[in-house]
Amino acid sequence: MLGLAFFALFVAAWAVATLGGFVSATFLADPVTMLKDGWLLLTRFGFLHDIGVTVWRVVGGFALAALVAVPVGIVMGAYKPVEALLEPFVSFARYLPASAFVPLLILWAGIGELQKLLVIFIGSVFQLVLMVAVAVGSTRRDLVEAAYTLGSNERSVVRRVLLPANAPDIAEILRLVLGWAWTYVIVAELIGSSSGIGHMIIDSQSLLATGQMIFGIIVIGLIGLVSDFAFKAGNRALFPWRLA
Amino acid sequence: MSAKLLVENVSRVFPGVRGGEPVTALQPTHLTVGENDFITLLGPSGCGKSTLLRIVAGLDRPTTGRVLLDGREVAGPGPERGMVFQSYTLFPWLTVAQNIAYGLVERGVPEAQRRETVAHYLDRMGLSGFAEHWPKQLSGGMQQRVAIARALANDPAILLLDEPFGALDNQTRALMQELLLSIWERDRKTVLFVTHDIEEAIFLASRVLVMTARPGRIKAEVPVDLPHPRGYRMKTSPEFTALKARLTEEIRAEAVLAAAEH
Residue B171, exposed/middle/buried by CB under 10 A (0-12, 13-18, 19+)? Predict the structure, then answer.
């Protein structure tokens, strides 16, 4: 309830600032215009297609990153030598800004879908590896020892202890980094793109259509909110032992 | 009495932390545990008794010496040496029944037989209504009962317990002691039990081994000839009280030493 109240307060402040004439409409559209523009976008300019494309890119790039990063992170967290081998490089790589790769990736992969996926992949994969490795590395030592005294070998400790023990944390990490992936996709779409939410936003800028731009940004926020809810509901269903 | 477990000249020196002096946790120790023996290792905290138990479990390596179980040298942890820890080590993502079945799954025991074994131990531990509970939903005493059941389900050659009731309140602890003892009185499983509680050490054991303050070594061996089955009333009997008085003297000197060192 309190959360909803703050949303209302935020929109109210925005409405007062714009409708009250405190801010020029050239720079910031009022909420009503934003909704009208949004309706136009959806009904006349095929914005639903843009949303679909962007969601596909985020999910695709992020799924690729997770597919690589989660196993690598688990192995890094479980085996000290692997960690010693990879940790310094991954720590270095994760500071490389994904957005800076955009021009380079356009050279390598053109301006097609592959380039968009790669931006998201590079932006997420190193963060994921490191966070998963830290989570797995901090598994309770006594649980691992208990497994050994019950007859587990190293492989089965990974499969039957490290994996299930950290699955909720890994899901939480995925949820967090997915939020960052949304930033990368928009950056990728701002440059050299012919579709997607980011493309629409940069198009609207040249027309000074701030209502459309804000609508695009709010749509991203809403999608993020929905995916967050989905993740949380999924975690509750998958990991009932956490809540018991 | 045949030797089930043989601890030969086992010592443990921990390397110094950040260039500090190495710490001797355990002086060279000899120990023979017979088949069906119930041994308690009694000592002040930090005396190396847990280190000794961890070495027997294979979770720690001795600096010198070796441990033999049924004539075979211990090289690492294994299911024939079941262990119950002081901390609650049930796997929180598995139900009570799945926890007990953990080792059975590891050995590839067929499902039907697994269910039978699990039901048997649930029953013996008084946990029958709790098969599908998560560990989080159980009290400390119940969690440790499941932990004991989980170790016993593997039918280990020896059961190792590292202050398993140390975190429980007095009443629960007394009940757990009686439960463990009743299981031992029926199965006569070989047990090595670490504790710093004198009463617990006497009540459970056929022999109490008293350890010195760090660096630990076994300084006295006290046989407990109290008859079985033992009940809680025994704790107030003259024989029990006499043993308690004797062990209190033995342990007090060590506790004073240990306190002076810290």
Answer: exposed
Distance CA A11, CA A33 (A): 13
CB neighbour class for A179 (10 Å; exposed up to 12, middle 13-18, buried from 19): exposed
pTM score: 0.86
3-state secondary structure of B126: coil
Looking at the complex, does the CB of residue A238 fall below 8 Å from at least one CB of chain B? no
Question: Nearest CA of chain A to the CA of B89: how many Å?
Answer: 5
pLDDT of residue B111: 94
- Residue B14 is classified by DSSP as E
Mean pLDDT for B216-220 is 88
- Residue A208 is predicted with a pLDDT of 75
Asked whether the beta carbons of residue B154 and residue A241 sit closer than 8 angstroms, the reply is no
Q: Name all domains of chain B by residue range, CATH numbers in brackets.
A: 36-61+70-80+156-261 (3.40.50.300), 91-155 (no CATH)
- State whether residue B15 sits within 8 Å of chain A by CB: no
**What's the CATH architecture for A46-237?**
Orthogonal Bundle (1.10)
Are B217 and B50 within 8 A, CB to CB?
no
State pLDDT tens for residues A8-34.
999 889 888 888 888 887 778 888 888
Check residue B262 and give its pLDDT: 59
Higher pLDDT, B256 or B161: B161
Query: ipTM greater than 0.85, yes or no?
Result: yes
Any chain B CB within 8 A of the CB of A156? yes
Q: Does A155 touch chain B (CB under 8 A)?
A: no
Q: Half-sphere exposure of residue A73, counting CA atoms within 13 Å on the CB side? A: 28
Considering only CB atoms, B137 lies closest to which of A156, A165, A244, namely A244
Between CA B6 and CA B65 the distance in angstroms is 11
Residue in chain A closest to B95 (alpha carbons) equals A241
